[in-house]
C-alpha cells in the first residue's frame, strides 16, 4: 500500500513536471521582454526521485503546485499588459551596449505610430504607442551657409510629404541660412508649421575650443549645446542632419520616445561603418566608442532629463579628457557623443537601424532593410552624397530626387481637426482674396497681384562686398528657364555684382543648378545672386521678380535691365564714374542707357560707340523696338545721342520705358502688371511722379538679342480679354497715381488720352 502511494506521488510529480516545463518555456520565449523568474522545479524532481517520504512530503508537494499556479497566473497578467521594448529588460545601470546585439536585431524593430509591414522578428500583432493626432513634433536642425540651406529643403519636403502632425522646426543657423530659410518659410506658408531660429554665431564660443577636422567645421559641433540653446520648457526633440531623407511619417520616430526607460536620454542608431572599430587602415585610431559606435545623423533627445543629468558638464569633461590624447575630433559631435556613451552606456536607447540607413561607402546599411516598406530614414552621410557606392543606390537616389524636384506648393496642406496658431499674414491674404469678385473677367489678373510665391534667396553661393567708395552698381534682371543661355554672355559683359530672380518650378530649379555647376563662367563668379521664385499661377509675375532681385541689392546703386540685353563692355565701370560726375548721391536721377537691338543671332558686338553707329548705319543694329513700339524709347532722342559727348536731360513722355540706373532706394515695380504690357512703363511713370530727372548717358549702350516670342506676348496678341484687362489695370493705376500725387499726376491721364 505504501509502495502504491509512493508510486502515485512519483507519477503526479512527473506529470506536473512534464506539463509545466514545456508550457513555461514556451511562455518565456514568446514573451521575452518580461522579467519573470524561472520556476524552480528542482524540488519536484527531487521529490520524484526520493525513494522514501513522509506525511510532510505531500504538503510540500501541494505548496509547490500552488506556487507554480501562482507563477502561471503572474505570467498571464504580464501577457495582458502592453508590451515593452527589448531595452526595458535591462537595468538602467547595466545596459549591455551595442556590441551585445547582432546586426540582424538592429534590422528588426517596431513600427511606431502606425501599422506598416514588419521587418524581421517584429510582430504586426503587437500594439505600438500612437502619437496624438494634434501633438506638435519638434525637430532641430543645424544649418549654415548657402549649400546647406539648399540641401535642407529636400529634408523638409520629405518630412512635410509624410507628416500628419503639426511641426515645429528649430533651426540653429548662421546669418546667411537664417536670411534664406526665414524668407523661404514665410513665403511657403505651410499650415501647422512653426519655425524658430537660433543664432549659431552666439554659440561658437561654446564649442570653438574643440579642434575639429570634419568638413562641417564648427557647426558640426553645435548639437552638443542644444540643451542650452533650445527653450528650457522644451522636453524632447528630434535632431536631424541636413542630408537626411524621410520615407515615412516622422510621428513614428517621435513615438519611440515612449520606449525610453530608466536613465535613457539619447535615441541613436548604431554606426554602420567600421570607423570606430579602428581597422580601416594602419594606425587608424578613432575616438572611444561602444562597439561600432553610434551615428548622430538622427538623434532623439530627452532634453529635460539631459539637463537634470548635467549634460553640459558631462560632455565637456569627456571631451577635455579625450582631447588630451586624440588632439582633435574627426567626426565632429559624433566623436564626443560616442565617448560619453562609452563611459555611460545607460544613457542610450538603441534605435533599429532603419531609422538611419547610412549610405556612405562600405557600410552595412543593406542589413537594415529587406523590402522598400522597411525603409524609414535615409542618410547621405558620405562627402560623395548621391555618388556613393551602394547596391541599391539607384533606388535611394530616385527617392531623393522625387523630393528634390517635388512641387513644394503641393505641401501647403491643412491638418483638419487640429487647432493651429493664428498666422496674420495668411489671414490677411485670405481676407483680401475673398473681397475680389470671382465673376470679374479680370479676376485672375487681380488675384495674381496678391499671390505669395515661394522664394528661395541665394540658391547658389554668393560672396561679395561692395566697394568702399560708395559708387558700386548691381545689375538687376529676371528670367525664366527659356532665357538661361543668356547668363554666361551677361557675365562676360558685366564684371560687377548681379542680382537675378529666376521664375522656375522645383524641377527646373534643379536643372538650373546642374547647368550653373557645369559652367566654368558662372562658377568663377561669386558676385551673382540667384534668387528662385517658384512657379504658381498662370501669369509670369515679371514685376514681382524685379522686386525680389532689387530687394537683394547691397550696393548703393542698381542698373535695372532685362535678361535679353547685353550691356556694352565696360558699362559697369562707366556707370560707377557717372555716379561721381552726376552727383547721384545727393540728387534724384535716373541715368538712361540707350537701348538698341539686332535681329542676328550671331553678332559681332560693337566695342565702341563709333563701331555701334557704323552698324546702325549699315542696318545691322536698330534703335530698340523702332519697328513695333517707337514710343517706348523715343524720348531718349537717339538723333541727339549720336553726336552727344556729355550727359543730357530728357523729359518724361507717355509710354516711356528706358533702362536706367538709380539709387537703391527707388520705388519698387507695381505688382498688378503681370505677363506682357505696361510693367516698365508704370515704374518709369512712378519715378517721374517722384521727381526723378532722366539723364541720358552719351557713351553708354546696350543691345537686345533676338529670341522666340514669350508665351505672355503671344497671349497678349491673340487674346482680346487679355488686352481688355491690361487696359483696365492701366486706368486703375493712373487713378491711383492721381490720388497719391495729386494735381501733378493729372498729366499722366492727359498724356495717355492724347497718345
Mind explaining what this structure looks like?
There is one protein chain. With 755 residues, this protein is an alpha/beta fold. The protein folds into two domains: 137-406, Spore Coat Polysaccharide Biosynthesis Protein SpsA, Chain A; 455-750, Alpha-Beta Complex (Spore Coat Polysaccharide Biosynthesis Protein SpsA, Chain A). It has 26 helices and 23 strands. It has a nine-stranded mixed sheet. It starts with a helix and ends with a helix.
Give keywords.
alpha/beta, Spore Coat Polysaccharide Biosynthesis Protein SpsA, Chain A, seven-stranded mixed β-sheet, 14% strand, Glyco_trans_8, Nucleotide-diphossugar_trans, Xylosyl- and glucuronyltransferase LARGE1, transmembrane helix
Question: How many domains make up the coordinates?
Answer: 2
What is the gyration radius calculated from CA atoms? 36 Å
Q: Average pLDDT value?
A: 82
Biggest sheet, open or closed, and with what strands and sense?
Answer: 9 strands, mixed
CATH topology call of the largest domain: Spore Coat Polysaccharide Biosynthesis Protein SpsA, Chain A
Trace the largest sheet across and list its strands: 11-14-13-12-15-21-17-22-20
Number of strands: 23
Question: What CATH architecture label of the largest domain applies?
Answer: Alpha-Beta Complex
Structural class: alpha/beta
Helical stretch tally? 26
Tell me the CATH superfamily of the largest domain.
Answer: Spore Coat Polysaccharide Biosynthesis Protein SpsA, Chain A
InterPro entries: Glyco_trans_8, Nucleotide-diphossugar_trans, Xyl/GlcA_transferase
GO cellular component, one term: Golgi membrane
Region (Disordered): 73-121
Membrane topology: Single-pass type II membrane protein
Amino acid at each position: 500500500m505504501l509502495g502504491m502511494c509512493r508510486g502515485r506521488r512519483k507519477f503526479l510529480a512527473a506529470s506536473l513536471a512534464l506539463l509545466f516545463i514545456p508550457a513555461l518555456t514556451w511562455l518565456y520565449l514568446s514573451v521575452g521582454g518580461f522579467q519573470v523568474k524561472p520556476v524552480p522545479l528542482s524540488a519536484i524532481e527531487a521529490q520524484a526521485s526520493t525513494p522514501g517520504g513522509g506525511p510532510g512530503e505531500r504538503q510540500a508537494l501541494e505548496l509547490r503546485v500552488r506556487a507554480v499556479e501562482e507563477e502561471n497566473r503572474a505570467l498571464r497578467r504580464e501577457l495582458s499588459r502592453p508590451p515593452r521594448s527589448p531595452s526595458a529588460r535591462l537595468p538602467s545601470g547595466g545596459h549591455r551596449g551595442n556590441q551585445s546585439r547582432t546586426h540582424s536585431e538592429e534590422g528588426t524593430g517596431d513600427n511606431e505610430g502606425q501599422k506598416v509591414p514588419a521587418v524581421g522578428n517584429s510582430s504586426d500583432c503587437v500594439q505600438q504607442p500612437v502619437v496624438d493626432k494634434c501633438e506638435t513634433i519638434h525637430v532641430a536642425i543645424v544649418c549654415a551657409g548657402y549649400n546647406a540651406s539648399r540641401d535642407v529643403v529636400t529634408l523638409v519636403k520629405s518630412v512635410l510629404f509624410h507628416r500628419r502632425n503639426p511641426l515645429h522646426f528649430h533651426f540653429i543657423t548662421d546669418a546667411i541660412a537664417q536670411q534664406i530659410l526665414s524668407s523661404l518659410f514665410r513665403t511657403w506658408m505651410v499650415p501647422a508649421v512653426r519655425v524658430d531660429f537660433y543664432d549659431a554665431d552666439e554659440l561658437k564660443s561654446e564649442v570653438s575650443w574643440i579642434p575639429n577636422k570634419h568638413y562641417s567645421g564648427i557647426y558640426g559641433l553645435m548639437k552638443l549645446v542644444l540643451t542650452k540653446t533650445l527653450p528650457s520648457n522644451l522636453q524632447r526633440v528630434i535632431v536631424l542632419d541636413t542630408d537626411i531623407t524621410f520615407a515615412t511619417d516622422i510621428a513614428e520616430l517621435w513615438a519611440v520616445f515612449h520606449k525610453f526607460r530608466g536613465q535613457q536620454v539619447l535615441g541613436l542608431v548604431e554606426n554602420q561603418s567600421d570607423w570606430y572599430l579602428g581597422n580601416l587602415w594602419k594606425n587608424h585610431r578613432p575616438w572611444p566608442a561602444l562597439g561600432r559606435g553610434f551615428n548622430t545623423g538622427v538623434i532623439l533627445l530627452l532634453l529635460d532629463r539631459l539637463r537634470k543629468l548635467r549634460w553640459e558638464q558631462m560632455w565637456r569633461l569627456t571631451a577635455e579628457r579625450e582631447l588630451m590624447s586624440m588632439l582633435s575630433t574627426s567626426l565632429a559631435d559624433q566623436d564626443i557623443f560616442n565617448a560619453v556613451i562609452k563611459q555611460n552606456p545607460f544613457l542610450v536607447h538603441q534605435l533599429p537601424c532603419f531609422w538611419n540607413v547610412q549610405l556612405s561607402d562600405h557600410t552595412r546599411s543593406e542589413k537594415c532593410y529587406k523590402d522598400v516598406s522597411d525603409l524609414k530614414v535615409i542618410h547621405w552621410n558620405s562627402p560623395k552624397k548621391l555618388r556613393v557606392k551602394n547596391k541599391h543606390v539607384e533606388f535611394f537616389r530616385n527617392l531623393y530626387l522625387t523630393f528634390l524636384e517635388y512641387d513644394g506648393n503641393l505641401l501647403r496642406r491643412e491638418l483638419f481637426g487640429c487647432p493651429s496658431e493664428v498666422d496674420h499674414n495668411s489671414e490677411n491674404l485670405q481676407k483680401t482674396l475673398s473681397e475680389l469678385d470671382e465673376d470679374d473677367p479680370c479676376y485672375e489678373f487681380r488675384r495674381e497681384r496678391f499671390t505669395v510665391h515661394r522664394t528661395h534667396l541665394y540658391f547658389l553661393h554668393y560672396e561679395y562686398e561692395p566697394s568702399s567708395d560708395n559708387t558700386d552698381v548691381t545689375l538687376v534682371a529676371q528670367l525664366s528657364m527659356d532665357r538661361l543661355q543668356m547668363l554666361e554672355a551677361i557675365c562676360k559683359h558685366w564684371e560687377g555684382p548681379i542680382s537675378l530672380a529666376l521664375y522656375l518650378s522645383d524641377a527646373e530649379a534643379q536643372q538650373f543648378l546642374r547647368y550653373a555647376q557645369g559652367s566654368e563662367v558662372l562658377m568663377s563668379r561669386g558676385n551673382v545672386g540667384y534668387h528662385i521664385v517658384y512657379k504658381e499661377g498662370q501669369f509670369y509675375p515679371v514685376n514681382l521678380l524685379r522686386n525680389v532681385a532689387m530687394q537683394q541689392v547691397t550696393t548703393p546703386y542698381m542698373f535695372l535691365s532685362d535678361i535679353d540685353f547685353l550691356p556694352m563692355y565696360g558699362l559697369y565701370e562707366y556707370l560707377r564714374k557717372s555716379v561721381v560726375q552726376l552727383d547721384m548721391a545727393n540728387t534724384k536721377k535716373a541715368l538712361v542707357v540707350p537701348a538698341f537691338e539686332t535681329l542676328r543671332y550671331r553678332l559681332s558686338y560693337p566695342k565702341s560707340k563709333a563701331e555701334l553707329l557704323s552698324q546702325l548705319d549699315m542696318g545691322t543694329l536698330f534703335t530698340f523696338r523702332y519697328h513695333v513700339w517707337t514710343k517706348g524709347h523715343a524720348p531718349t532722342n537717339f538723333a541727339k545721342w549720336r553726336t552727344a559727348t556729355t550727359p543730357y536731360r530728357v523729359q518724361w513722355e507717355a509710354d516711356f520705358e528706358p533702362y536706367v540706373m538709380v539709387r537703391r532706394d527707388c520705388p519698387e515695380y507695381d505688382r498688378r502688371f503681370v505677363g506682357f504690357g505696361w510693367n516698365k512703363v508704370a515704374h518709369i511713370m512712378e519715378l517721374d511722379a517722384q521727381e526723378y530727372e532722366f539723364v541720358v548717358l552719351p557713351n553708354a549702350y546696350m543691345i537686345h538679342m533676338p529670341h522666340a516670342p514669350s508665351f505672355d506676348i503671344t497671349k497678349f496678341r491673340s487674346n482680346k480679354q487679355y488686352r481688355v484687362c491690361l487696359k483696365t489695370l492701366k486706368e486703375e493705376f493712373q487713378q491711383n497715381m492721381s490720388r497719391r500725387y495729386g494735381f501733378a499726376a493729372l498729366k499722366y491721364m492727359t498724356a495717355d488720352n492724347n497718345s
